[in-house]
Specification:
alpha+beta, 12-stranded antiparallel sheet, globular, single chain
C-alpha cells in the first residue's frame, strides 16, 4: 500500500512524484493524475502499467483503512489492465469502490478514465491488516487531506527514479531504498510492479508495452534488493520476484504484452 508517513522531503517515496490526488465522493474514492512522458513505457506514448498499478494500490488500499483502523494494511493481490486507448492520454481519472469488507480481508475495484470520459482500464485489489502492533496508520480523513493536493512531479523516467535496472534479458533488479518504501519501510506493491514490468519487457524485445499485470504478494521486502525474473511465451509472462537478502520468493506475477 502507499506510503503515508511524514518523511523528510529528500526521502519521500516515488509515489509522491506520480501526481495522484484523491478525494472521497460518497462511498467511492476518486483519483486524478497527469500523464507525463516520464510515465510512458519506453518507446511509446502509453502510460506504464506500473504507474497505473501504483495509483491503484493507493486508491484501493485506502478503502481498507476504515474497517481495519488503526492497524496498517498490506496488499495481498493487485491486478491492473490498460486498453490500447491509453495511448496519448494526458490525464487519468479513477473511481474506486469497496467490493467486500470481511473480518480479515478487504476486496476493492477501480476503473480508469481518459480526460474525455472514455474507459481506458480497470483493476482490483485485496488487502489485509498486519498483526504487528508496531505499525499503525492515522485515520482515513487525515490521509485524504494529504492526498487532496500534490506537488509531485516525476522529472525523470520512473525506472531511473527508483533505481530499477535490467541486468540481463528477462531480469530486473530493484533496490529497497526510501524511494520505494511504503508505510512499513518495505517495497511499495505498486512500485514492485515496475520491476515485474521491466523484466517482462526485457524478456520479449518485440513487445510494445505490458497491458495487463496481476501480482500476488507473499512477503514484504525490507532489505532486498528485489530481483524479478520473467519467462515469456507468446506475450504471456510468468514473473517470480525474489528478495535477494533472504533468497526467498516475495511475489509472483503474470503479465500480458500488447
Amino acid at each position: 500500500m502507499v506510503a503515508i508517513e511524514e518523511e523528510p522531503a529528500e526521502e519521500l517515496s516515488a509515489v509522491h512524484d506520480l501526481g495522484l490526488t484523491i478525494e472521497a465522493v460518497g462511498d467511492e474514492l476518486h483519483g486524478l493524475a497527469p500523464v507525463v512522458p516520464t510515465m510512458w513505457t519506453p518507446g511509446t506514448e502509453s502510460l506504464r502499467i506500473s504507474v497505473a498499478a501504483t495509483w491503484a494500490d493507493a486508491l484501493l488500499g485506502l478503502h481498507a483503512l476504515r474497517p481495519f483502523s488503526p492497524r496498517l494494511t498490506v496488499t495481498l493481490e493487485l491486478d491492473v489492465h490498460l486498453f490500447d486507448e491509453i495511448a496519448g492520454v494526458e490525464t487519468v481519472s479513477a473511481r474506486s469502490r469497496l467490493v467486500k469488507a470481511g473480518q480479515s480481508v478487504v476486496v476493492t475495484s477501480v476503473d480508469f478514465f481518459a480526460e474525455d470520459g472514455r474507459l481506458v482500464g480497470f483493476g482490483s485489489g485485496s488487502f489485509m491488516a498486519i498483526p504487528d502492533p508496531r505499525f499503525s496508520v492515522p485515520p482515513l480523513d487525515w490521509v485524504l487531506a494529504r492526498f487532496a493536493e500534490t506537488s509531485g512531479a516525476l522529472s525523470v523516467p520512473l525506472a531511473e527514479r527508483i533505481g530499477c535496472e535490467r541486468t540481463e534479458p528477462g531480469v530486473a533488479v530493484l533496490p529497497c531504498t526510501p524511494a520505494v518504501h511504503n508505510a512499513s519501510k518495505a517495497i511499495n506493491g505498486g512500485l514492485l510492479a515496475l520491476a515485474v514490468e521491466e523484466a517482462a519487457l526485457s524478456a520479449e524485445p518485440d513487445a510494445r508495452r505490458i497491458e495487463s499485470v496481476h501480482l500476488r504478494f507473499l512477503r514484504a521486502i525490507r532489505v532486498g534488493p528485489a530481483l524479478a525474473r520473467a519467462d515469456v511465451h507468446h506475450g504471456m509472462g510468468r514473473v517470480d520476484v525474489l528478495d535477494l537478502s533472504t533468497d526467498t520468493v516475495a511475489a509472483i506475477a503474470t503479465t500480458r504484452s500488447g
